[in-house]
Amino acid sequence: MKLRHPCHCLRLTFQQQFRCFATKYTGRVVVEAENGRSFAVEVDAPTLQIDSRGYALPRRDLICKISQILKSPPSASIDPFLDLSDYLDTLTLTLTPSEASEILKSLKYPNLALKFFRFCPSEIPKFRHDCFTYNRILLILSKSSLPTRLDCVREIVDEMERSGIRGNISTVNLLIGIFGDGQGGGVKELIRCLDLVKKWDLRLNCYSYKCLLQAYIRLSNSDKALEVYQEMRRRGYRLDIFAYNMLLDALARDQKVDQAHKVFEDMKKWHCEPDEYTYTILIRMTGKLGKPGESLSFFQEMLSKGISPNLIAYNTMIEALAKGRMVDKSIFVFSKMVENSCRPNEFTYSIILNVLAAEGQLGRLDEVVEISKRYMNKSIYAYLVRTLSKLGHASEAHRLFCNMWSFHDRGDRDAYLSMLESLCNAKKVTEAIDLLNKMNEKGVKADTFMYNTVFSALGKLKQIPHLHDLYEKMKQDGPSPDIFTYNILISSFGRVGEVEEALKIFEELANSNCKPDIVSYNSLINCLGKNGDIDEAHMKFIEMQEKGFNPDVVTYSTLIECFGKTEKVEMARRLFDEMLAAGCYPNIVTYNILLDCLERSGRTSEAVSLYAKLKEQGLTADSITYTILERLQSGSHRTSRVRRQNPITGWVVSPLRIEVKSEQKKVRSWGRWEAVYF
């Protein structure tokens, strides 16, 4: 073999760097240029060194060269394996399996490694994979995230069996780890691994049993895991603390309490000292079973052994006591937690809050706050305020919020928003407005969402003067209203019959950066229609279509109700047909509105036909539907009814506020009536 400089990059220097695993070559110079800068060397084939077992030692220079070709192909070829084929054609020696294994180890990408693995037996003469190259590719696939990973592993195992390659115990351990990681493998694959142990005449070692145990646990099969553990005991193998904890946790999750206690005793018998995770598992198990006394015993045993509980252990213990409604002991453990410099988190406080609320002892929250005062920052205050607000304890939330206001110069937006929502839900809108005006003092800027929260509460409570004032303040001082602001205002003014104000807000919306959406039109149409201006409502309906908005089921239902109340039954029917033609499917509310309209106008047959269409659409009749049908059954020729007058518009807003009888009686009654007509 001849190598020429510079084409093959062979350079000789006086200060040569040696590597302990480099292959040694001998040769002689056969041609030298006149200037001495290039020459040709004839190199003799190297004698491969062998190890103590007679295997050829890998040639590191060859491994580096092939790895370099695969990682960064020297030519412009798209496929680096073409360059690799060209390079191997220049060699008189074949690649050995140990060298192929080292090359696989150096490759970063699993797809590239898999392709090289396939390349070797197909393109290199007389090459045959051995157990070690199979183990190498299995190890690479075990760490990869390829979507076809398991299929590739199955193909490789099938190939091993077809080729008669006998795997070793490492092969089995790798396969158990791959098929037992809980990401697509299953018990069948694990059984196949055990069959391979018999076929290859192998014997599971301690590590193999640990792999098998963990595989069954990850597959949520605690029964099989327990069988493996018992087999290990018979063979005298021992688990480490990690494996013991995995087994205990699996048994605890499956509520195998007796087995968990037995494993725990074995653990101590085999001198494997439990740690804080072990005790946490047992505390959680007994706590879920409603045995806080046993949980406390495990906790005290952990302390007696000098083990310092971590945050999870404390939370688990407090949760077990809280489940048993032991308020005093829960607070005592909480105090010890703080005393031992273990910082409570939000979950800790949520447990305490829930048990105090359940036992009607929320007054003791101040005691909890005082115990943990060195850890009480504004984020914890904010969490407590939010949690109390969600639990519906507005007074306690407000009291705690006042403490946060007093002790912290800067506020927390989430806490302020939670307090606003709590006050609004409790109908304390004056306090909500006051908080909205003052939060800027604590560095929290009131945003549009906060204003919308208060606007919504004021609208529902019909506090129109406050609504006017707050909206004017918002326009003057900011923030800018958004589409939700305008929609809330239109709906609120419509609710109290202030049509002119609603139209004014809609006009402001149209002239602003926020353009009306379908909710804006629906709110205005509802306002106009239910306050007597049905013609203007219909005009807005046409306008929204001209603006490119497709009316939805709310739009149609609102207008149908408005036409029905003004005895314009034909318009209501026409609009319903138009709704169906437009591909907008009516819901049960739409059907109820039109059924009520037809019943009041004495159109019994049309109402019956409409009910049949309701059933064909697959909708389920509700209590209002049955009430209307009962009226049809009891007096189908009635054309007029005495109705309660609306104090604003002079006519009824909702036609469906009727006392409902028991569901069973309505269904029985309607069933008899339905049999006559259908």
TrEMBL record:
PROSITE patterns assigned to the protein according to its UniProt record, in alphabetical order: PPR
Source taxon at top rank: Eukaryota
Segments annotated as PPR repeats: 205-239, 240-274, 275-309, 310-344, 412-446, 447-481, 482-516, 517-551, 552-586, 587-621
GO MF annotations in UniProt: mRNA binding
Pfam families in the record: PPR, PPR_2, PPR_3, PPR_long
InterPro entries in the cross-refs: PPR_rpt, PROP1-like_PPR_dom, TPR-like_helical_dom_sf
Alphabetically ordered keywords of this record: Repeat
Domain (PROP1-like PPR): residue spans on this chain: 224-374
Family note: Belongs to the PPR family. P subfamily.
Protein name: PROP1-like PPR domain-containing protein
UniProt organism field: Anisodus tanguticus
